[in-house]
Amino acid sequence: MSPVISYESFLVTESFEGFEDPEKFKEYIPKLEKYKKELEESVLDEYKVSMPKPIDELVKDQLDAVDYMYEAKLLTPEEFEITDSTASKIVKNIGDGKWTAVQVLKAFAHRGTIAHQFTNCALQIFVDEGIKRAEELDEYQKKNGKLVGPLHGVPVSLKEHFNYAGKVTHSGYVSLIDNLTEEFGVTPQILYDLGAVFYIRTTQPQTLMHLCSESNYSEVTKCPYNISLSSGGSSSGEGAVVTFGGSVFGIGSDIGGSIRSPAAFSGCFGLRPTTHRVSMEGSTSSLGGQETIQAVFGPLARTVEDIETMMKTYLNQGKPWNSDASLICMPWRDVPKPNAKELTIAVIRDDGLVRPSPPIRRGINTVVDKLKEAGVKIIEFTPPNTKLAYETINKMYNCDGNETNRKMLGESGEPLVQLTKWSLNYGEGSRMFTVPEVRQLHMTRDALRNEYNKFMVDNKVDFILSPAYNNVAPHPREVYNWSYTALFNILDLPTLVLQTGLKQDPELDVWTEEDMKHQYRSKLEQLENEMYKPEEFKHAPIALQLSGRRYHDEEVVAAGKVIADDILKVNLLKH
Amino acid sequence: MSPVISYESFLVTESFEGFEDPEKFKEYIPKLEKYKKELEESVLDEYKVSMPKPIDELVKDQLDAVDYMYEAKLLTPEEFEITDSTASKIVKNIGDGKWTAVQVLKAFAHRGTIAHQFTNCALQIFVDEGIKRAEELDEYQKKNGKLVGPLHGVPVSLKEHFNYAGKVTHSGYVSLIDNLTEEFGVTPQILYDLGAVFYIRTTQPQTLMHLCSESNYSEVTKCPYNISLSSGGSSSGEGAVVTFGGSVFGIGSDIGGSIRSPAAFSGCFGLRPTTHRVSMEGSTSSLGGQETIQAVFGPLARTVEDIETMMKTYLNQGKPWNSDASLICMPWRDVPKPNAKELTIAVIRDDGLVRPSPPIRRGINTVVDKLKEAGVKIIEFTPPNTKLAYETINKMYNCDGNETNRKMLGESGEPLVQLTKWSLNYGEGSRMFTVPEVRQLHMTRDALRNEYNKFMVDNKVDFILSPAYNNVAPHPREVYNWSYTALFNILDLPTLVLQTGLKQDPELDVWTEEDMKHQYRSKLEQLENEMYKPEEFKHAPIALQLSGRRYHDEEVVAAGKVIADDILKVNLLKH
Q1: The predicted structure's pLDDT at residue A11
Q2: Which residues, 6 or more positions from A327, have their beta carbon under 8 angstroms from its beta carbon?
Q3: pLDDT over 90 for what percent of chain B?
Q4: What is the C-alpha separation between A386 and A459, in angstroms, rounded?
Q5: Where in the sequence is the active site (chains A, B) (predicted)?
Q6: Which end of chain A, C or N, has fewer beta carbons within 10 A?
Q7: What is the pLDDT of residue A482?
Q8: Taking CA atoms, what residue in A is nearest to B549?
Q9: b/e for B129-150, b at 16 or more Cβ within 10 A?
Q10: Which residues in A lie closer than 8 A to residue B434 (C-beta atoms)?
C-alpha cells in the first residue's frame, strides 16, 4: 500500500493506549445515566410531540421534520409568528408591548423542545430558568419603561462547551461530568447582559473534533430537513435547533468547520468570524493555549440579518475586549450594501482533493448563474496548495501528540467513538511535534495566507464562493472530509455559510456517465464519493460558503445578505 | 546557593556545546574583515569629522556628541535647519520647491555619517544610492508636478535585519554574511513606495537578544548624549542615528524592549505598537514561526509627531495588510487630542524586581508632578505578578531549547559575545519545552493580560506610566535587566518611550541614606543597582514609558504628544 496521506487517517489502525479503560469508566456510568435521565425529564409534558410513527421509522422515511411541524401545526399560529421572527422584530414587538419576553421564550422553548424530539439537539433544557429570566426582563421593562439592551427577550441557544453559570460544563468529555462552572464565559455573559434569554444547551461530539455529533453523553444529532442525516458538527445541536427555529440565533465554535458544517448540513446560516473578534474566554475544551490553529466562536441563524444583529450588538454594545484581552478592539463597522454589479467573486468548484457530489454542483451552478445575472463578475478559481493546507492543518490539530486528549479522555477511560479514533489519527497522530516543527507549521500557514491574500488583492477579488463540504448532509458518523471548511480555518478568512434555498432532489442530483469515469485522487475521495447515493439524501439543504479577506467580516455579511435575500431570495422564516 | 531565578541567567555557567567552533569560524574572518572595511570606506571624505581628541579620550570624557555637533558647527546652518525638521515640514518644503529631495538627503546623510563616527551606529552607509533615489524623486516631481507620496524625500533609517533589496541581510549572524536578499521586506517596501529615501542600515547585537549592541560585525553602539554609555538595543543603531538626527525616523523591532531601550537610552521617542499592525514579513532573524511571544516593528523619532506620521501614512496609505496577511486590517484612527483633565494615569515607580536608580526616580517624580499640575488623575500602581511575567517571557524566548540559534550561530561557529551567553541562558536555557508546556506559557500570558486589562477597565485607567529600565543608559555590555520593557511585550500593550527632557545630573541623582538600607530582592537587583555610580552617567537622557490598552496605539501616541509637547515641553529639534 502507498503511504497514508495525513488526511487519510481512517486507513490507520492505532491501539489508543492510554485512552480507553472499561474499569475506570464503570464509575462514570451511573453519572452518565443520571445526566441523560435529567435531559429526558426536562422535556415538558405540554411540549411533547405525539409522533405519527415510531421515530426509527420516521428516520427510515427520511422525514422532513420542519415541514412536518408546519403541516401538523405543532405550534399555535401565534407561536409560529413569534418563532419565525428576527431578533429585531422580537425586540421591537416586546418594546411596543405587543409581546412579552415570557411569551417569546415559551414559544421558542416549545419549538426547541420539539426540535430536540426530532433531532436530539439538546444536552440540557431548562425552560423554567428561561421563564424566570424572561419574567425579570418583563419586570424591568415595566418598572423602567425601557428594555435592558438590544437583545432584550431574544432566545439564544448555546453549544454546551461554553461555561454556564451554576451548571456542569463537560465539553463532551466524561471526565468533566462534575465540572461545575460558576460563572458564564465572556460571550454568554455579554449576550445575557444585552438581554438574551437562555433555556437550552446543545450537543457536540466527543473531543469536539468531528463534523458530526456522537459522544458518550448523547446519540447523534440529526438534520431537521431529513432526520436520517447528520446535523453536522461539532456545533451539532446548534445547527439543528437553530434551523428548526428553537432559537433566534445560536453560538457555536469552529476550528475546522464546526460552525459551518452544522449550518450547511442542518439548513441555516452560520458565520465563522475572523479570529480574535468573539471571545472564547470561559469555555471548556482541550484547546487551552493552543494557538497554532485558532478556534473561533460565531453565530448560526435562519437569516443573515440575525447573524449581523448578533455580531453588531455583541461587539458594539458588548465590547468584549473589556473582558478578554486576547481580542482585537475592533467594533463592527457599518459597511454600505454592496452593489452586485461591482462585486468580483472567485468560485471554487472543486478543491482538488474531493470532488463535490451532484447536488452541490447543482447548487454552485445555480448560484453562479444567478450571480452573473445580477451582474457579479465571476472568476473561476482553482485554489492552490489545498493538499498542503489540509495536511498542515491536520498536523496542527494533533501537534501535542494528543497529550491533552489523552489526559481528558483517559481520566475517565471512556470508550472512544468512531470519529474520535479517526480524528486522533489526524496529522501525525500521537507523535508530539518539537517546538521548531510547530514553528514550521506556522510558517507554512502564513505562506498559504499570503498566497491566497495576494490572489485576492491582485485580482481585486472581493469574495470566494465554495462548497462547504463535498456533499450535502451525510449520514451520521460518515463525515470524513474536512478539506472545504478547514481551508478557511488555516487561511483565517471570515466565512459565511449560505443556504441556497435549494434542496437535494434524487431525480436531478445523480452522477452522470462522465462522472463515472472519474479517477479518484485519493482513498478519501473514493470513500466520500461512493457514499453519495441520490435516493438517500432527500431534501437535504444545499449550502455554500462565502469567504472574504481577514477582518472583513462585515463585508462578508453584507454581501451574504444581498446574495441570500435579494439574489437567491432564500426565506427560512416560513410563517 | 539558592536556586537561580529564571531571569538570573548571569549566574549560570553553560558550556554552549554546538555553538562556538574556532575552526569553522576561520573561513568567515576574511569576509567579516571585508564587510567592516566596506563600512569604513563608505564614510565619505567630505563627511569626515576631525575629532577634537582621539575617540577613546572623548569616551572617557563622557562627551555629549549632540551638544558638540551644535557647538562645533559640524553642519552648515541650512543642514541644521533641514535635519532639525519633522517629516511634514520636509515634505511641505519639498512640495513648495524650497528644498529638493537631494538637498534633504545630503544633509541627513552628512549628519548620519557624523553620528556613526561618534556612536558607531551604522552597518552600511550608501549615500550614493540615497542620492540616486532622491534624484528620481526630484525628477518625478518636476515631471508630474506632484509628490510620489506622503513621505516624498524623507530620509528613513532601517535596522539591518529588515531585508534590503539587493543587499546582504545577516541579522547579526555571521553565518548569514552571504545572505543576499533580493527584495525589500514589506515594511521598507511600503515606506519606499510612500517616498522615503534610504542611505543607512544600522547596528544590532548578535542574535538580536541584547538590550545592547555587540556582535561580530561591529563594536558596541554608543549613546549620543554620553558616548561612554550604551545606545541600548537591540535596535541599537536606530537609537543612536535617530537621536543624533541622522534620519527623520527609523524603524526598529521589539520583542523585549528592543525599540524602547534604544529610544530611552539614546534619547529619542520610540513606539512599540500592538502586535500585527506593522509588518515583519521579509525580515531575517531566528524568530520565524515563533508566536509564543510576538516581536513587533515600530518607529523611533525625535518627535511624537513623526512617530504618528510614520504610523498613519504607513497604515492608511500603505495598507500593509494587502502584502502581509498576518496583519490586522486596522487603519490608523484619528483620535481627538486628549484633555489632560480627563486623563487617568497609573504610575509604576518600582516593578518589585529591580529598584530604579536615582535619575529615573527623579524623572518619575518630576513628570508626575507636572501631570498633576496639568490636571491628570494619577493612581499609584503596584503592578501584580511581575516576577511571573518576567519568568514566563524568559521561558518563551528560549522555549525551542535554543535550537534555532544553535543552528544559526553554530553554522559559522562564531564566538559568542557576553550578552549572547546571558540570553541563551534565559528561562530554561537549552531545554526544549514540550507543546503542552508551551501552551501553558500561553495560558499564563493570557491570564496576565486579562489581569492588567481588568485593572485598567475597572479603574478607568487610560495609560500606565513606568520606567523604561531601572536606570538611564548603562555602560556597554552591562545591561542585565529587561523587566520594565518586557512586561509590556508579554502584555502586548502599545508603549511609547517618552523623553522627559531631563538629563542625569551627578549632583542631583545620588543614592540617599535611605536607599543604602535597601534589602536587595535578588542578585539581579543588586547587580543592576550597584552599577549605578552617579559620576559615570553624565547627561544620560531620562526617559519613561507610556502604555495604553491593546490596539489603542492611536490613543497612546495622542497622549504622548500632549505630555511631551504641551506638558513637558520637550524639544529635540534644537535648530
Answers
A1: 80
A2: A276, A277, A278, A279, A320, A321
A3: 97
A4: 19
A5: 159 (charge relay system), 234 (charge relay system), 258 (acyl-ester intermediate)
A6: N
A7: 97
A8: A325
A9: bbbebbeebbebbeeeeebbbb
A10: 400, 403, 432
Alpha helices, DSSP H, located in A398-512: 403-410, 418-424, 435-458, 483-490
Q: What is the DSSP letter of B499?
A: E
Is any Cβ of chain A less than 8 angstroms from the Cβ of B440?
Answer: yes
Q: Which amino acid is at B4?
A: V
SS3 B537: coil
**Which chain B residues are within 8 Å of A404, Cβ to Cβ?**
436, 439
Q: Is B435 on the interface with A (CB under 8 A)?
A: yes
Q: What is the pLDDT of residues A266-294, one digit of tens each?
A: 999 999 999 999 999 999 999 999 999 99
Location of C-alpha cell 537609537: B239
Distance of CA B45 to the CA centre of its chain: 29
Which positions ≥6 away from A537 have C-beta within 8 Å? A226, A229, A359, A471, A472, A473, A504, A506, A509
Within an 8 Å CB–CB cutoff, is residue A449 touching chain B?
Answer: yes
Let me know if B30 is exposed, middle or buried by CB neighbors in 10 A (0-12, 13-18, 19+).
Answer: exposed
DSSP code of A155?
B
Asked about A266 being catalytic, the answer comes back as no
The C-alpha atoms of residue B199 and residue B573 are separated, in whole angstroms, by: 21
Distance CA A162, CA B322 (A): 35
Q: DSSP letter at A400? A: B
Q: Return the DSSP state at A276.
A: T
What is the pLDDT of chain A when averaged over all its residues?
97
Tell me what the mean pLDDT of segment B278-282 comes to: 98
Contacts of A400 in chain B (CB under 8 A): 434-436, 439
Which parts of A321-388 are beta strand (E)? 344-347, 377-380
Chain A neighbors of B326, CB-CB under 8 A = 446, 449-450
Is B222 strand, coil or helix? strand
- Taking CA atoms, what residue in B is nearest to A455? B322
Contact assessment for residue B163 and residue B188, using Cβ atoms and an 8 Å cutoff = yes
Question: Residues of A with CB below 8 A from B441's CB?
Answer: 289
Q: B1: pLDDT confidence band, cut at 50, 70 and 90?
A: very low
The question of whether A234 is a catalytic residue gets the answer yes
- Predicted-assembly ipTM surpassing the 0.95 threshold: yes
> Residues with Cβ < 8 Å from B351, sequence gap 6 or more?
B383, B386, B466, B467, B483, B484, B487
Q: Tell me whether strands A344-347 and A463-467 are parallel, antiparallel or unpaired.
A: parallel
B247 part of the active site: no
Rounded CA-CA distance A381/A547 in Å is: 13
How far apart are the C-alpha atoms of B280 and A333, rounded to whole Å?
Answer: 27
10 Å Cβ neighbour count for A97? Answer: 9
pTM: 0.97
User: Which residue does chain B place closest to A456, by CA atoms?
Assistant: B322
Q: Are strands A296-301 and B180-181 parallel, antiparallel or unpaired?
A: unpaired
Interface test with B, best of A280, A332, A406, A439 (most B CBs within 10 A): A439
Q: Is A490:A293 a contact under the CB 8 Å cutoff? A: yes
Residue A398 · residue A424 · CB < 8 Å: yes
- Convert the pLDDT of each residue in B62-120 to its tens digit: 999 999 999 999 999 999 999 999 999 999 999 999 999 999 999 999 999 999 999 99
CA A398, distance to chain mean position in Å, is 21
* Interchain CB contact of A437 with B (< 8 Å): no
Q: Which of A199, A204, A200 minimizes the C-alpha distance to A170?
A: A204
Q: In the structure grid, which three cell numbers stand for residue B421, read together?
A: 551567553
Best of A435, A449, A487, A491 to disrupt the B interface (most B CBs within 10 Å) is: A435
The C-alpha cell at A141 is: 421593562
Q: Are A492 and A452 in contact (CB under 8 A)?
A: no
